[in-house]
Each structure stands twice: as structure tokens, then as C-alpha cells.
Design brief:
2 copies of one chain form a homodimer.
Chain A lengths: L2 H4 L9 H11 L3 E3 L6 E3 L1 H20 L3 E2 L5 E3 H4 L3 H7 L4 E6 L2 E9 L4 H11 L8 E10 L14 E11 L2 H21 L6 E4 L11 E8 L5 E11 L9 E3 L5 E3 L1 E8 L1 H10 L16 E5 L4 H20 L4 E3 L7 H11 L3 E5 L1 H6 L1 E6 L5 E5 L6 H22 L1 E3 L3 H7 L5 E3 L6 H11 L2 E6 L21 E3 L3
Parallel strand pairs in A: 3-7, 15-16, 15-17, 20-21
Antiparallel strand pairs in A: 1-2, 4-6, 5-6, 7-8, 8-14, 9-10, 9-22, 10-11, 11-14, 12-13, 17-18, 18-19, 21-23, 22-23
Helix pairs in contact in A: 3-7
Chain lengths: ~475, ~475
């Protein structure tokens, strides 16, 4: 293979879409499956997902949420029970019509989401206030047929995600839960994935079809498009009524329960690739990197080897004792230069180079992936790598915030908006609250209301579109 | 609810099948989904699965196996590519024929197993000997339509499992891998689930349709029926040829690779329930118990509470510092007696009772779930709980081995076999090796060859059925 086959051959600026696809394939995160719209995760991609799920699992558990399993097949009749919700998904549903040679009477849907199934079960499990709150989460895959082109992690007909479903005795408790979850989402994405998000509400038009309201976190990608990073819905009693999720309160009176549902998907990995990657390949934030440090020993002969390898082992042990995920690349048939490129492509946050000369100088060379800076570190200071990783994590979030700010605008003139939206970006603009204006803006510019940030209430301004009194200042953008 | 609604109402001996179902439902491990053949896992059931998967994940990782993700949809044309394998699954396959309102040309199968899909990908990923061995594992669900009655964990149309798929440069290495995996399976099931297994080969008739040979581990259930606990297949080049899984060796000559596949499922949970459960409910081996110790504080008034609760907290902290999974049941509205029954039903290995009198005596009451023995333990000896849990684990395996031995017979007379098989059990009997005898025995008695134990070679005996020279002494039994 030539170098071109291995490395990224287009720049992020030049051809963002091709650059993204090359990173996914060449860093061996994922590959296309034989069926259009479907992808396979290779070990380096799946490891990132495993780290992410384990982080969420801890936070969910601390919030009293427990995991369960729901089957993937939902009878059509059940899916139709909440009709608005059904209409929203209908065209994307995969239908099972046969098992073996037998036709199935009531067609079975492959789960596009599990509200209807979960709440059928919940209505059996919940009898009294003692059974509440019921807070469950499901790590599974959802299926929604994608007609547009496949984009690994971003647009696939099957995607890995978690869907949480909670039930509460009071509206207040359910609404609090919606916000608690959104907070878990936000701090995980910002602190672990180093991606800044803006949280707020979706508009009526953009909310989850079965919800009373939807809260969301949105991020801006380097190409100026918005990506929905996760949503947390207040379902009110929209499902508890048709599905009879009822409980007897302490006074023995029956009430319909209050519910929430919420989810994030492997789309977060897609966002991470887009935000942090560069022309050399993937750049992983340390906290989510399956390998945080790679050590590349450098030597030409047995003499060098005998000097270098024992030190490499020593360093590996020190790092492991600090709970750093470290890998030693001792592949004999490859040159150090090849290995450097390889690990840069794979985005490992820190590379340690160590050869006979370093042994003499009693130090190693440290190469940081995110800014490609090299420095040296004395043998006695190896433990500082922990601090270096922390610093990288913080610096990456800072850089991402700066990038996002550059692409964010406050605007009130519709003509200015129309000219600027061509280049992408987040536009905070006053809005009257009417779906009509929202739809016209979408029609004329391709931009949606992505999020109405919390606290962006009445502004005494005029709607960017109709010039009537505005009620909020949403963020408009074109989306993925 | 009356006591009958809550507790198990039939004895294990009396009605084994009903007893099993009651445990699953009443211990809240699982419940029936709306579609026949499908079940839902509740948190207490799913936690056991999570513990089990984390144990396997560590062992797989130590063996150089990494996890990945495969989509659930496989095109019919791909599934047909290995024809024998296809015929074996055909009647159980769920077929997706529509997405939204559109008919799909090449029907899509819901994964009954992923050999065909995995190896299509592998053939793209593997070019040279440097890419080998490739060892991947996939935690997912498989779907095979069940026509017989649903039995949670044992007979369901969708089941959670892992499927491992490895590729090797040589036959020897692949065959070694088959055995390494079987060994991981065996020691996990025996040491963590406290279930004794017998390992060996499947007969030609009973092997995985796509394999050269299948190794298996089998256990005997308390009702005398055999349960297949896991299989590890040597695929030879049966798939590498049609799927073109080829590699250029060091001499640059292309070879077809050698492959293995292997799997265990949530069926292991079903076996654990059957083997260890009793008339009070579930009995969990400590190593696989999501909660290993439950502490029930006992007091009637505030004075008692003030005495008891601080000590409970102290004990909880000691146990947690020993990495014991502990839960304090401080539900106010329930009596201690109710709680005792509840935790016995749920199978928690050790219960600690502590009331004002125990505080005076400076000791707690320890109730072991598996033999329902009570003893007392001084406050200064709390750390011994670790040892007690270890002892329980060992004792449970010992008891299970004794049970299995009682139901195991060595036999050579077919008439004796026919009369004894009615009551169930494992029957070691000489066999000539001919499929014809195997089939006749199955027809006349309902018993299969479950496993040909390793090392059970030529015995100089006569085949139990045809009286010709035997070539091995398989275990015959009726199975699940």
C-alpha cells in the first residue's frame, strides 16, 4: 500500500464530507455493511462506544436508573396505539411479515423507539405509589430506514443508542427528571467528549411527536451545520393514558402517571470525529480514548533493544499504576515513522518516543496529538503524563468552544440572515413563536429552529421574519 | 396482595416447569412481551446478565479478543451463500419485506447468527498474515422463531448472546482457539455460576451445520433433561472459501484462512435458576449476584432506630471496602418478615439481620440463602463475610455436582436404557458411531447424543443399539 492508501488524502477544510468518511474508514472505526444504510463497528470504533456507555451507566446508576432489555419486535397494533407518534415514524419503519415460510398476521415493526412496548410492560408492573418512580434505561439499537446517503454514526438505518423511560407520581418530579437527564447529557458531552453544547427547548414543530415538550442539546459542527446531540422529553400523560400506566396513590385513588423518555446515540462519536479531527486523522479527547498513551520504542539493533525495552516496560507500569490506558507498539516489521503516522491517524492523545539517545539523556519525547507539539519529559517525571492528559482534555474543550463561537451570530435582520446562512453557523434571532414563520424560514433558507436556549424569553424585539413582537430568541441553523 | 401472590406456590419437585416460570416472574427477572415468544428483562434479571457479560469480556480481552458491532439485517442472498448453513436456519428466520410503504427487493433476514455477515466484512479487512489472527466478539441478540411454548431464558424467539468469530493463518491455531474458548466457557460456568458441565464433541448429526466439528458443554438439569450451555465450533475453511477470507502469507502466496465461531446466551441464566433455585425462590451464587449481601435493620421505635442504623451504616461501609455488593433495605412500610421472604425470593446469598438485641450482644445474625442456615457473627468479625461468600460459592458447586452425579448413569443395555430414560438423566453408553443408530435411539426414546466427552474413545464395547464395535461412549439424554 502507498502512503495515500493509508493516510487521509483530503483536507478537512477542502472537502469536509470526504474527509469525514476517510477518517471513519482509515482509522478503522467502522465500515459499510452489505445493506445500504447499515454500518459495522470495528474494534477501535466499538471501544469508544464501550467507554461512552460505561460513563453514562455510572451516571445513570447514581441517579437511580437501572438497565433492562426490550425485544426488538413491536406489533403494528401496539405501535399504532399512540397515533401521533405512529404517524411520525410510519415511513421509516422496517416491517417483518414472515417467520420462515409463514405469514405473520399482525405485522411486526423493528423498534424505531420503544415507548409503546416499554409502557405496555410498565402498566403491568406499576400498581401503587410504592412502585414509583420507575426509572429504566435500555442500551439497544433502533431502526429507521434512511433514504438519504449513509453517513457512518450520523445517518444510518440502524444505530446504537440508549433509550431511557421513567415514570413518576407527579408532574413536578417528571419534569425535574427531564432536566436531570439533560444535565447528565450536557456534562458528559462537554467534559468527556470535549464538545460544547447549547441546551434548551425544541419548538412545537421540532419536538418529539409523542412529547408535551422536548429539551435538547445542540452543537455546531465545523462545516457550520447543527447536530442534535441528545434529547430529553417530558411526555406528560400522553402515553400513560392510552397505555394505562396508572398507580394507586397513598389515599388509594388511581392516577395516571407522569413520564419522561430520553436518548443519546452513537451520533456523539460522529460529532467527536468532526469537531476534533484534523488533516492527519482522528483526535481523541483523553477521557474517551480507548488508548490514551502509545509508547513507540526506537532501536536499530539488539544492543539498542536491550537498552530501550526494559525502560519501556518500566514506563508502561508506571502509567498503568496511574490507571492510564497505555499501549506499547513493538511491531518489528514497521518503521517508527510509519507507527507515528498510524497512531496519529488513530487519534491517540499522547505518543511517547524512546530510543537509545533518550536513554542517555534520561528522558523521553512526548508528542501531543491535538496540537502536534513535541516536548521532552525526564524519566523522573513520567507520572506527570496524568496532568498532561488532563490539560489536553481542557484545551480541546476550550478550542472547540472558540470554534463554536466563531460560527455563532446574533442577528435580527432577515436579509442579513439569508445571506449569512449560506456559509452555515448558529444564528440567534428573535421569533414571534408562530409555526408559520418557522416554516417559511425553513422553506426559504433551509434553516430550522434547532434550540430555544433556556432563559431566552421575551426580548422586546421583533420577529426576524414577520416583524411582530418576539417571544424568544431561538437558534436557527441548517442541520444534519 | 396475599402471600400466595408474592411467593412461589408450587414446589420444585412437584411441578418443575410451573416452579421455574413462577421464579422468573415473581423474582422479577423477566416478563412476557406482547409478541408470543419474546420476553423483557427487568432490572434484577438484566443485572445478572451485565455481571455475566463483564466476566466474559475480561476473559475474552485477556485472550486478545475485541468487541465490535454488526447490524441485525442480513440480505437473503448473503445468508444463502453457505447453503448447508442456510437450510439449517431457514424455517426459523424472521423476514423483513418492507421499509415504510416500500417493498424491499432482496428480503432482509433478522440475524439468526452472523457468520455470513461477519465473514463478508472479514474478507475486506484481511489482506495479509499481518492482519491475523483476527479475533472479534459481538454481544447482541439473535432471532429464531420458536414454535414451541415460550420459556424465559430457555426458549424465546429473540435471545441475548455473544457470538465470537476468529480467523487464523493455520488450522492448528484455529483448533487451539476452539479449545481455549471452550475452556473459558467451562471455567466461567463452573466457577461463577456454580454449574458443573461436561465438555466434548457433538456428533455429526448434532453439530452446527456450517462447522467441521462442534465442541460443546452440557449440563444436566434437576428434571433430568440436558441443557446445551455453549458451543465452540471449528469451521475449517467451510466459510473462508465461499466468502473469500484469504490472506497473503509471508511468502506472498494466497491461502484461505481457518476459522472458528462460538457462543453462549442468556440460557446460562435459565440453567442457574433451575440448578440452584428452591421452593423459596431464586438462589444466586455469590459471584454472579448483583446484590451479594442485604442488610435488614430491625427496630420498632425511634430509640431502636437510633441504635441500629448507625451500626448498619458502619457494616455497609466495611463490606463495600471489601468490594462486596451490599444493599440496605430500609423500607419503612414493610415488616422484617416480609423483607426476609422478599430477599429469599430474589436469591440474595447472604442476609444480615440487626436489631437492638444484636447491638447489645455486639453481633449480627447471618442467614445464608443456599442452605437457609442462620448463625451469628460478632461485630469485630464482619470482614469474614468475604470468606463466607467464597464458601457458599464452593458449596453450591459441590451440591450441584452431587445432584448431577445422582442423575448420571453408565449403561450398556438398551432395554435398561429405555426404561430408565423415562425418568431423565445422563446416560453414558457405547455407540458404534453410525448416524443410523443415533437416529433410531432418538426415534424410540427421544434421547439425543448430547456430548461425546473428550477422551471417551474406543472402549472395546458393543454399541448399545446395534451391538457392533463401539467407537466412543457419548452421553445420551433428552434435552431442552
Amino acid at each position: 500500500m502507498t502512503k495515500e492508501d493509508i493516510g487521509i488524502t483530503v483536507s478537512k477544510k477542502e472537502d469536509f464530507s470526504e474527509w469525514y468518511t476517510q477518517i471513519v474508514l482509515k482509522a478503522k472505526l467502522a465500515d459499510y455493511a452489505p445493506v445500504k444504510g447499515l454500518i459495522v463497528l470495528r474494534p477501535d470504533g466499538y471501544s469508544i462506544w464501550e467507554l461512552l456507555t460505561s460513563i453514562f451507566d455510572k451516571k445513570f446508576a447514581n441517579n437511580g436508573i437501572r438497565n433492562g432489555f426490550l425485544p426488538i419486535l413491536i406489533p403494528e397494533s401496539l405501535l399504532r396505539k399512540e397515533q401521533k407518534h405512529f404517524v411520525g415514524f410510519n415511513l421509516e419503519v422496517f416491517w417483518v411479515t414472515h417467520s420462515g415460510d409463514n405469514e405473520i398476521g399482525d405485522r411486526l415493526a423493528l423498534r424505531p423507539t420503544s415507548e409503546t412496548l416499554a409502557y405496555t410492560m410498565y402498566s403491568k408492573w406499576i400498581q401503587s405509589w410504592r412502585d414509583l418512580p420507575l426509572k429504566m434505561n435500555f442500551w439497544n439499537s433502533a431502526l429507521r430506514a434512511e433514504i438519504k446517503g449513509t453517513k457512518p454514526f450520523l445517518r444510518t438505518s440502524e444505530f446504537l443508542w440508549q433509550e431511557g423511560h421513567t415514570v413518576h407520581a407527579t408532574r413536578e418530579e417528571a419534569e425535574e427528571e427531564v432536566m436531570k437527564i439533560l444535565e447528565i447529557y450536557k456534562n458528559t458531552v462537554e467534559e468527556e467528549l470535549a464538545i460544547p453544547v447549547i441546551t434548551g427547548n425544541k419548538s412545537e414543530k421540532e419536538k418529539f411527536v409523542g412529547a408535551v415538550y422536548t429539551t435538547t442539546m445542540e452543537s455546531i459542527m465545523p462545516d457550520g451545520k447543527a447536530l442534535q446531540m441528545g434529547t430529553s422529553h417530558f411526555l406528560g400523560q400522553n402515553f400513560s393514558k392510552p397505555f394505562e400506566v396508572k398507580f394507586a396513590d397513598k389515599d388509594n385513588v388511581e392516577h395516571f402517571a407522569w413520564q419522561t423518555s430520553w436518548g443519546v446515540s452513537w451520533r456523539l462519536i460522529g460529532a467527536m470525529i468532526m469537531i476534533h479531527g484534523d488533516d492527519q486523522g482522528l483526535v481523541l479527547p483523553p477521557k474517551i480514548a480507548p488508548t490514551q498513551v502509545v509508547i513507540v520504542p526506537i532501536y536499530k539493533n539488539d544492543d539498542g533493544k536491550d537498552k530501550v525495552l526494559p525502560k519501556v516496560e518500566e514506563i508502561r507500569k508506571i502509567l498503568e499504576s496511574k490507571e492510564i490506558r497505555v499501549h506499547v507498539d513493538d511491531r518489528r516489521e514497521l518503521s517508527p515513522g510509519y507507527k507515528f503516522n498510524d497512531w496519529e491517524l488513530k487519534g491517540v492523545p499522547v505518543r511517547i518516543e524512546i530510543g537509545p539517545k533518550d536513554i542517555e539523556k534520561q528522558s523521553v519525547v512526548i508528542a501531543k496529538r491535538y496540537n502536534r507539539e513535541k516536548s521532552s519529559l525526564g524519566f523522573t517525571e513520567i507520572e506527570k503524563i496524568s496532568t498532561i492528559l488532563d490539560e489536553i482534555q481542557i484545551a480541546m474543550l476550550k478550542t472547540a468552544r472558540e470554534q463554536a463561537n466563531v460560527n455563532s451570530y446574533v442577528i435580527s435582520d432577515y436579509n442579513e440572515f439569508k445571506s449569512k446562512i449560506e456559509k452555515g453557523g448558529f444564528f440567534s434571532a428573535p421569533w414571534c413563536g408562530k409555526a408559520e414563520c418557522e416554516e417559511k424560514i425553513k422553506e426559504e433558507t433551509g434553516a430550522d429552529i434547532r434550540v430555544i436556549p433556556f432563559g431566552s424569553g421575551n426580548t422586546n424585539e421583533k420577529c426576524m421574519y414577520c416583524q411582530e413582537q418576539s417571544i424568544s430568541v431561538p437558534i436557527f441553523a441548517r442541520g444534519y
